[in-house]
Design brief:
The structure holds 2 protein chains of 2 kinds. Chain A is mainly alpha-helical. Chain A has one domain (2-508). Chain A is 76% helix and 1% strand. Chain A contains 23 helices and 2 strands. Chain A has helices at residues 2-12, 15-33, 39-51, 55-80, 89-100, 104-139, 142-153, 165-178, 205-223, 228-239, 248-270, 275-290, 292-296, 304-320, 322-328, 334-345, 354-357, 359-388, 395-414, 417-435, 441-463, 470-473, 475-508; strands at residues 182-183, 190-191. In chain A, strands 1-2 form a two-stranded antiparallel ribbon. In chain A, helix 5 (89-100) runs antiparallel to helix 14. By secondary structure, chain B is of the alpha/beta class. Chain B has 2 domains: 29-121 and 252-316, D-Maltodextrin-Binding Protein, domain 2 (3-Layer(aba) Sandwich), CATH 3.40.190.150; 122-250, Periplasmic binding protein-like II (D-Maltodextrin-Binding Protein, domain 2, 3-Layer(aba) Sandwich). Helix content of chain B is 42%, strand content 22%. Chain B is built from 12 helices and 10 strands. In chain B, strands 1, 2, 3, 4, 5, 6, 7, 8, 9 and 10 form a 10-stranded mixed β-sheet that branches. Classes of the chains: A mainly alpha, B alpha/beta. The interface between A and B is large, with 54 and 57 residues.
Amino acid sequence: MIEGIIVGLSTALTLTNLVFVVIGCLAGTFIGMLPGLGPMSAIALMIPIAASLDPSTGIILMAAVYYGAIFGGSTSSILINAPGVASTVATSFDGYPMARKGMAGKALAIAAYSSFSGGVIAAIFLLVAAPYLASVSLSFQSTDYFALMVLGLTAVAAFAGKGEMLKALLMTVVGLMLSTVGTDQTQGIPRFTLGLIDLIDGISFLLLVMATFALSEALIAILKPTSDASRKEEMEASANLGSMKLSNDEVKEMVPVIGRSSFLGFLIGVLPGAGATIASFLAYGTEQRIAGPVKGKEFGKGSIRGLAAPETANNAAATGSFVPLLTLGIPGSGTTAIMLGALIGYGIQPGPRLYIDQPEVFWSVIVSMWIGNIILLVLNLPLIPYIARVLAIPSRFLLPLILFFSLIGVYFVSFNTFDIQLMVLFGFIAVMLRFLDFPMAPMILGFILGGMMEENLRRALLINNDSWSFLWERPLTFSILVIAALCLFVPVVLPYVQRIRKGAKITGE
Amino acid sequence: MLKKFRLALAASALVLSASVAMAGSHKVVDEIKFLIPGGAGGGWDGTARGTGEALTKSGIVGSASYENMSGGGGGKAIANLIETKNFGTLMVNSTPIVIRSLQKVFPQSFRDLTPIAGTIGDYGAMVVGKNSEIKDFAGLIDAYKMDSTKVAIGGGSVAGGMDHLVAALVMKNAGADPGKVKYIPYDAGGKAMAGLLSGEIKALATGFGEAIALARQGEVKILCVTAMKRLAASPDTPTCDEAGSKGTSFVNWRGFFAAPGLPDDKKAMYINALTKMYGTPEWAAVRDRMGWVEIFNPGDDFVKFLEQQEKDIGGLMKELGFL
């Protein structure tokens, strides 16, 4: 293995390669910041350039762009509540509140450290365990994916603070309902399209998240004019915007979160089709539970743990998704599908024999992940204070810019004016709902998981001839469902159990 | 004006590869606008941009621009092409234009357009896992005839979509009941392949190009391919025809269409440009990068092919109860 790492390092660490890593990181970060352009588009844009380079340089360039784009996406989630891709939605839950409190620099720094750690730790897992995990990733069937999505949905409990469980659940259901609009993925029949040709392909994730997060946020800021006092406070806070200082206590809080989320994220990422989004939600929900009643209450209001967990997990999962790609040649996500195309373009066929036939490729991919992550951290840390200053722009300029970029971002994906109308409609509804204290995050959670949940459930039912028995007959499915049930009910039941115990103690005395 | 503005925006946002190549002596067309019925990054998008790249870089076409117009399963772009009657536009499309117009997803069909040529394509294939008890095509048919509810066949399209139709066509020509195919849909070929390897489906109907790499590594076995002649890429793989599914021929093509009423000289010009493209190293580079298989099928042959495919698929869909 050491030999392999050295081979990888010696191919990766040439001057040309390093130049391309720097270019890739910068380009990726910039592309990722634009709403609508995520890692997938960033890599797709790089392919023509990468194709003209030699394989190891090309792979390194793509890895750099990839991690750059993921980090760039987190930046827009944190600063302006505009998660451009699904995997950074969870980042905005606590990252944006932190930025609102004037800790944008700190939030970006936490995101950078977490992404870095998640990527690097997961690359170590990849190195050690890839060949063994290949078979694990293939043991997951549709029924197990369905159970996994149910487990993901339990993360909704994390948004149920201040006694708003009912509202959170309602919004989850709204999200699940919205996910059914469009052509049924199983039978190919249009549903709930109101006869509109524009709804045949369903509601796009980007449209919904931009409308309910970025657009509604900006509109609310306009509708709720800040008083002079709070304005002054904000000005004071903005002086601190760029500060990236983390106290020792905060670092101590982050480290275990990063460790757990790296592991969880990597494992979820290994499953083809589950991916970074589910990993980020699961990590968020898990950490909220682990944090306990006091710290857990901070989630959604600018918790460090709540930011570090999804940021670590989505990067770890992105790395984990290379397991089925490299060891089996199966792309589990859109991004890895594009990567596969690029590798094949170089005459490299990922698969079980890659590790044996072309070990230098295997190693240079892993080494380029490390280099990409390191360079990204080195490049971005000094830039963070400047990026964070975006929020120092007076709101009369910043808000129209946010409105402009979120609308343009959605338009540039579909080039369909209907999407803009629909987006404004959703933005308007979201503003009203938010004034009534309905949370938007559970809806997005329901929307993202709903489609995959339905698809896997219906596939499982088809395979099992419409029998539901797989829910309890298949051990893996059953175990995941039990965990999901525990996640939901233990926090509800625990206080009562404790109360009864206390009561018993008192009477015992 | 608005349209120009829109195009300019599109160009600046997506960093288009619209390169103005040096005007070589062999330039055939000054400029082409590619209309893409789907969003950036999809299969149609890659086909249009890759073809445009080869055409401009080789100097056959002066410049290329691209407009993405998604919506209605491709229907929006078709309606736009018919409405604007812009003879400088080529729309990319593929087998689904035949299937979706039969399904009445959109009211138009290829007859409302001017078909230029099919350019690339992929054959269908029936695939099983390496440890499957099914060893060859005859084994698949036997198991299917015994109890088709125990032979779940997956694919990367919806029920009634392309992969389902391939499976049904293969079964029908092998003398089995195509209506009994227990078809399991996945939303992408890669996920369907993972489903096959996980053992939840017994067999997979997919593109030959998506299966060949794993077959070479011994992870899966291709039982047969829906071409009438064995493919050079895998001479040991039998055709479905010779394996017992008589006359099974299916190709998933991608190609280009122009506006209705296109003058013949312009049509000849586009065909000439595409014909010349195949010989260029720029095309070879794009083709190999994307893993495309050349299936050039221009002009009247393309129309005949589309008519035949519509007849085959339409008959099958009726038989299966999808129409």
